[in-house]
Amino acid sequence: MSAAYIINRFLQLIPVVFGVTLVVFALMYLTPGDPVEVIFAGESGATAEDLERYRRELGLDQPFHIQYLRFVIGLLQGDLGISLVQRQPVRDLLLSRLPATIELTAVAVLVSLIIAIPVGVVSAVQRYSTLDKLGTAGALLGVSMPDFWLGLVLMLLFGIHWGVLPISGRIPWGMEPQHITGLYLVDSVLTGDWPAFRAAVRHLILPAVTLGTSMAALTMRVTRSSMLEVVHQDYMTFARAKGLSGTQVVVRHGLRNALIPTVTVVSLNIGVLLGGNMIVETVFAWPGLGRLVVDSIYNRDYTVVQAAVLVYAVTYVTMNFLADLVYTLLNPKVRL
Question: What string of H, E and C letters represents the secondary structure of 62-127?
Answer without folding.
Answer: CCHHHHHHHHHHHHHCCCCCECCCCCCEHHHHHHHHHHHHHHHHHHHHHHHHHHHHHHHHHHHHCC
